[in-house]
Amino acid sequence: MGKVCYFMDSDIGGYYYGQHHPMKPHRLAMTHNLMLAYGLHEHLDVYRARLATAEELTHFHSTEYIDFLRRINPDNAQDFAKQLQRFNVGRTGGDNPIFDGLFDYCCLYASGSIDGAKKLLTGKAQIAINWAGGLHHAKKSEASGFCYVNDIVLAILEFLKYWPRVVYIDIDVHHGDGVEEAFYVTDRVMTVSFHKYGDNFFPGTGDIWDKGSGAGEYYAVNVPLKDGIDDESYFQIFKPVVEKVFETFQPSAVVLQCGTDSLARDRLGGFNLTVKGHARCVEFVKSFGVPMLVVGGGGYNIRSVARCWLHETSVLLDRQVDDRIPYNDYWEYFAPEYRIHQPPLDLPNKNDPEYLDKVRSKVLENIRHLTCAPSVQMQEIPPMMYDVDEEEEAMDPDTRGGKG
């Protein structure tokens, strides 16, 4: 197995969307602390995330929008009334609040994905992990669904400079609409999203008939699912779809979004996956041996988030970890069982076999419209094109611990 690199900044857990907001960056501090308690950092190349520059963010986002994010703060929000509405930020009780350090937060989580892509491009890692990333709803000029900057799109654009094809796979409970929209008319990126659809569930996109347009027709793959889906049902549709995607598209790289709101017990999701079931999908994508950027995403039960991303890091490292959680700074959060794995809930699975067969057949039929992987004239990566060791600082042991 090739090297696995891991991006983390000890400050990112301190950003705060607000008291009643379901998004808690604190979950990243908990995940990182579990990583330390299990000793997984000893098997990872750990890097401290840097602050991405405003110019880097405009590789996808509009200059006006990034300038707005850079300037806005809780004290001057009243001066930006028109822009707040235009960019979908700061509405009272809205999804995308203004909070202290908002722009630095965006730059931190985006840099881990951008620099993870660079590590893979230069062969310095086979797998790059940025649990702070995966904010898949952000649009070119608009915040959406707790997401301000789309780190995934920025990372994919990095890959496309030198590699012909990238596949994006999303196992968050919500449709990966921002990424799909960004690449809806190109055949160089295939987006594959497994998500809850219907009942006015956010963001309301991702129907099975949404399949891309123009040169990108059939390169957007949507697998709409219903409440209560369990591990077995999920993998029964995940495996054949992903197999067909890799066989047909032959990607140079894969970006896997691992939102944990598809787990049982999530505050916003309605699925019934366990940590093992979620991680089985990660392990299956890894089995193709394609350079792999792994990012976080949704997840609104912070205990489940930390459990899941800890376990999935161990899967990516091919290392088994004890189910019993060792003592750590957040040990009391995992009471009373103090274990990684929890059973599913007793919920009805609204995805009956007939429905899943129908969805699987239609999705595979759509993919079969693609007779071969698109070819594209590419240039070689120049030696020393990316000296990423200068761009991010490797973490020393003294900076890896502590609460965020």
UniProtKB/TrEMBL annotation:
Residues 21-315 form the Histone deacetylase domain. It comes from the Eukaryota. Its main location: nucleus. Its EC number is 3.5.1.98. It catalyses: N(6)-acetyl-L-lysyl-[histone] + H2O = L-lysyl-[histone] + acetate. One of its GO terms (molecular function) is metal ion binding. GO terms for biological process: epigenetic regulation of gene expression. The keyword Chloroplast does not apply. Substrate binds at D95, G145, Y300. The active site is at H137. The keyword Metal-binding applies. Belongs to the histone deacetylase family. HD Type 1 subfamily. This is Histone deacetylase. It comes from Galdieria yellowstonensis.
